[in-house]
Design a protein that fits this description.
Elements (H helix, E strand, L loop, with lengths): L2 H20 L5 H10 L6 H17 L7 H12 L34 H8 L3 H9 L4 E5 L5 H8 L2 E3 L2 E7 L9 H4 L3 E3 L2 H10 L5 E5 L6 H10 L3 E7 L2 H13 L6 E5 L16 E7 L14 H4 L2 H21 E11 L8 H11 L2 E8 L1 H4 L4 E7 L3
Parallel strand pairs: 5-6, 5-8, 6-7, 8-9
Antiparallel strand pairs: 1-3, 1-4, 2-3, 9-11, 10-11
Helix pairs in contact: 1-2, 1-3, 1-4, 3-4, 5-6, 9-10, 13-14
This protein binds S-adenosylmethionine.
Pfam families: Methyltr_RsmB-F
GO molecular function: RNA binding; RNA methyltransferase activity
Keywords: Methyltransferase, RNA-binding, S-adenosyl-L-methionine, Transferase
């Protein structure tokens, strides 16, 4: 592809990303992949270059742009103006840039969300928002049986302070076909997620419920901490995610240990009735805005709306109440969200303590700027014995 055609491809994909963001459609990564499935003439260098253009424009502005063209022009004018000469109207090229046409403006947070984020971060708002929008390294969790020093040497990865089983690749590269990944010796998991698991402090012989287990990222960490002793139930309402957990458990040799349970949305208790008041630990890793993961999913900034956020906080409160009923006297509930918003974090935990009668037992807020990991909020709530 000529450079001009790459720009035009990026514009077309960005149009799709904008449309999908407005209507809860497919993720940007999926749209990039689909675009090239039907364009076999594009080689791997073309794909990589177009992807860079698409993500450069997405990272540039947190405010959903008017069009793919506006997004790309806005970004290139700010960061690579020489490329605008390639908007020359030749075959497969974008038409020349007009002085008065709409261009996206740089924005660190969606306009409607900025006041809440300023209130949350105070003077550090700009630095925190910049860190949230920057590229993330690739973090790995090394399985208990694997020699971490040998894995670090083989992958040329660095240790992560405070997490003895974590390694970091500052420049991410695909690992899905690496023997260390295929054998279950390493799993991709952000340091923030690993810190949440460490905060939960699952112990051998406990009964643990990972209520919103998804594809099992944190389940694997909980299982490692339990050293295969006790009971670990992993539930979710999403069949596809729960099914994706299967191969991960197999790779880690945990197929027999973890009990997956598919829940019916709104009627979750039907599949959990036997566990009422039975768990030492319930992890509620609740669905959330994902504001803490903007580094890896920058287009989430274009997706979130006030209505969606309100729906999410409602679901979070419901899941905390459900989780609380599963905790046994003397047990604990760990509430976690990959969010940096007060209403999903501290405010949610405080309201939960007042509503459920559970006792606040410590909490932690992580941010990319401060902790070099995804943004997370995690809180512990104890049930009196
Ligand atoms: C933040 S994700 C969990 C990520 C997962 N724990 C991990 O570490 O990879 C939130 C999960 O909550 C699930 N979920 C949404 N509504 C739910 C409900 N009513 N009951 C249980 N899980 C639910 C979603 O399907 C999603 O997988």
């Amino acid at each position: 592809m000529r450079p001009q055609a790459r720009l035009q491809a990026a514009i077309e994909i960005l149009d799709q990303v904008i449309e999908a963001a407005a209507h809860q459609g497919a993720a940007a990564d999926t749209l990039v992949q689909r675009y090239f499935q039907t364009r076999r003439y594009a080689g791997s260098k073309d794909r990589a270059a177009v992807r860079e253009l698409v993500y450069g424009a997405i990272r540039f502005t947190a405010e959903r742009p008017y069009s793919g063209r506006a997004a790309l022009i806005g970004w290139l004018e700010a960061d690579a103006p020489e490329q605008l000469a390639l908007f020359d109207g030749s075959a497969h090229a974008p038409s020349p840039v007009e002085p008065y046409e709409t261009r996206a403006k740089a924005a660190l947070a969606p306009l409607w969300l900025e006041p809440a984020m300023r209130a949350r971060f105070g003077d550090a708002f700009e630095a925190e928002a910049l860190a949230l929008g920057a590229r993330a390294p690739l973090d790995l969790r090394v399985a208990p049986g694997a020699d971490i020093a040998a894995v670090a040497a083989e992958l040329e990865a660095e240790p992560v302070p405070g997490l003895p089983r974590a390694l970091r690749l500052e420049t991410p590269r695909p690992l899905e076909r690496h023997p260390l990944f295929e054998s279950g010796a390493v799993e991709v998991q952000d340091a923030g997620s690993q810190l949440v698991v460490a905060f939960a402090a699952a112990q051998p012989h406990e009964t643990v419920i990972d209520l919103c287990a998804g594809a099992g990222g944190k389940t694997l960490g909980l299982a490692a901490d339990m050293a295969g002793e006790g009971r670990l139930i992993a539930s979710d309402t999403d069949r596809t995610r729960l099914q994706a957990m299967g191969p991960r458990l197999q790779r880690a040799g945990l197929g027999e240990f973890v009990e997956p349970r598919l829940l019916n949305p709104g009627r979750e208790m039907e599949a959990l009735a036997d566990l009422q008041g039975a768990a030492d630990l319930v992890l509620v890793d609740a669905p959330c805005s994902g504001t803490g993961t903007w580094r890896r999913n920058p287009e989430l900034r274009w997706r979130l709306t006030a209505e969606r956020l309100a729906r999410l906080t409602h679901v979070q409160a419901r899941l905390i109440d459900l989780g609380a009923s599963l905790v046994k006297p003397g047990g604990r509930l760990i509430y976690a969200v990959c969010s940096v918003l007060t209403e999903e974090g501290p405010a949610q935990a405080e309201a939960a303590a007042a509503r459920t009668g559970l006792t606040p037992g410590g909490r932690k807020a992580l941010t990319p700027l401060h902790d070099r990991c995804d943004g997370f909020f995690v809180a512990r709530l104890d049930k009196r014995g």
